Amino acid sequence: MRLLLIEDGNEYEEFARHFLADRFEIDAAHTAAEAQARLSSAREDPSRAIDALLVDLRFERARTEDLVGDLPSLARRMFAGDLERARRWAKDQQGTLILAELRKAGFAQRAVFVHDFPPDRLQNLRKLYGDVHAVPAFDADAIARALGGER
Q1: pLDDT tens profile 111-141
Q2: 3-state SS class at 39
Q3: What is the CB neighbour count within 10 angstroms for residue 106?
Q4: Which strands make up the sheet holding 110-114, listed edge to edge?
Q5: CA 93 to CA 32: how far, in whole Å?
Q6: What is the value of pTM for the model shown?
Q7: How many whole angstroms separate alpha carbon 44 and alpha carbon 92?
Q8: Measured between alpha carbons, how far is 43 from 40 in angstroms, rounded to an integer?
Q9: Where are the beta strands (DSSP E) in the chain?
Q10: Low-confidence spans in the chain with pLDDT less than 70
Q11: According to the model, what pLDDT value does residue 47 have?
């Protein structure tokens, strides 16, 4: 199985290469554009097909220009015009915003977040984005099961 990690740093990649490499071939993307490019490329070459996504929820280190979402519109709609609050919210939710973009582009791979979502939030993510799972901690076996790479 091939796994695409989507994160703003390299912690997920280091974790996956150390604890999941025996179960998955690993690739990484650090922005929505990179993720979409990797998935599009894999779609064209079936030998490089990506089976699952491991998605970081928060992108604290992401550059503003790499964030998905129209920040001025978001600021007006949700934060009384406060662009900084909108930027912080977009960074805190970037993983789900990236997943939304990938789903719009037709990529339906299973997506897993390492986050302890409340049950109603996870259910809502599933309604919006299909095959979405969450694991509350960096537990390699639990993550592998959620990704579909059981031993």
Answers
A1: 999 999 999 999 999 999 999 999 999 999 9
A2: helix
A3: 9
A4: 25-29, 2-6, 52-55, 110-114, 132-135
A5: 13
A6: 0.94
A7: 32
A8: 5
A9: 2-6, 25-29, 52-55, 110-114, 132-135
A10: 149-151
A11: 87
Which residue type does 120 have? D
Separation between Cα atoms, residue 22 and residue 134, nearest integer Å: 21
Alpha-carbon 72 to chain mean position: 23
Which residue segments constitute the domains of the chain, with CATH numbers given? 2-62+94-147 (3.40.50.2300)
pLDDT at 46: 86
Per the DSSP assignment, residues forming a β-bridge with 27 are 4
Picking from 25, 34, 135, 43, the residue whose alpha carbon sits closest to that of residue 94 is 34
Task: Compute the mean pLDDT over every residue in the chain, rounded to the nearest whole number.
Answer: 96
42, 99, 143 from 36: Cα distances, Å: 10, 10, 22
Amino acid at residue number 41: S
d(CA 44, CA 53): 18
Helix (H, G, I), strand (E, B) or coil at 28: strand
